[in-house]
Amino acid sequence: xLGSCPKAAAAPASTGAVPISDAEFKAVRDLLYREVGIxxxxxxxxxxxxxxGSRLTTHGLNSFTAYLRLLQDSRVPGELQIAIDLLxxxxxxxxxxxxxxxxxxxxxxxxxxxxxxxxWSAASSSGEEAYSIAMQLAETLGxxxxxxxxxxxxxxxxxxxxxxxxxxxxxxxxxxxxxQRHCLKGSGPYEGSFLLSRxxxxxxxxxxxxxxxxxxxxxxFDLIFLRNVLIYFDSPTKRAVVERLARQLRLExxxxxxxxxxxxxxxxxxxxxxPTLYRVAAGARxxxxx
Length: 290
Fold this sequence. Notes:
Elements: E1 2-3, E2 20-21, H1 22-36, H2 45-58, H3 64-71, H4 79-87, H5 98-109, E3 117-121, H6 128-141, E4 146-152, H7 155-163, E5 165-167, H8 176-182, E6 183-185, E7 193-196, H9 198-201, E8 204-208, E9 221-226, H10 235-246, E10 249-257, E11 270-274, E12 277-280, H11 284-289
């Protein structure tokens, strides 16, 4: 069976929309699950057509089967990453879910000096969350030792995050005092945009990490933000990702997830302290390291 792609996301008008068969759609879903652990629902056919249709045009292809073969061609390096970037959803804003930033503030304020206070934005998207964390830590810990590590699967959004340049309307959720202290309003060719200050940018390190694969050496963290990500994973993938991140928490560390998410029934490695906030369960660290 064939399903039509929306015209706006299809090949050139002269050729019409490139249809995607059930088998092709399943192959795309299987590829995304295999590579990044995301379970794409049956209702995302239009999304696949819309986001990958332009790549068929770029390569002069007339079917998704041909494009799937291209993704396996070692002579076309980087195309698989482009496809992943296009198919992964990146929705974020500055200081999203303010209660989490209040918890960040009180936790950082109680931090014992002597070692850096470390926070990981584990699905940082285009950087708004990571820079929000950095601004809050700058307010709370000042010039003291603190670090923000940020990662994402998408190279496209990481490039945007590293630029630290945003449209001015994105600043609406930044507290005014922090906006004035840590952001620079653009002028001339940058009219209508703002840039995070050099001091804030220097405290945030970005890296590409696939959370469904073994992690590189990233060290331990006082807080790990993993918000609005687990909803895209099935239960086995959720368990693997959460337990992988739990190993990177300090003994007194916390994992922060989104308000629409829960770890109930997913793992015994972490226990709920309050909604969206989890700590390492008693004795769990020894079991995870065994």
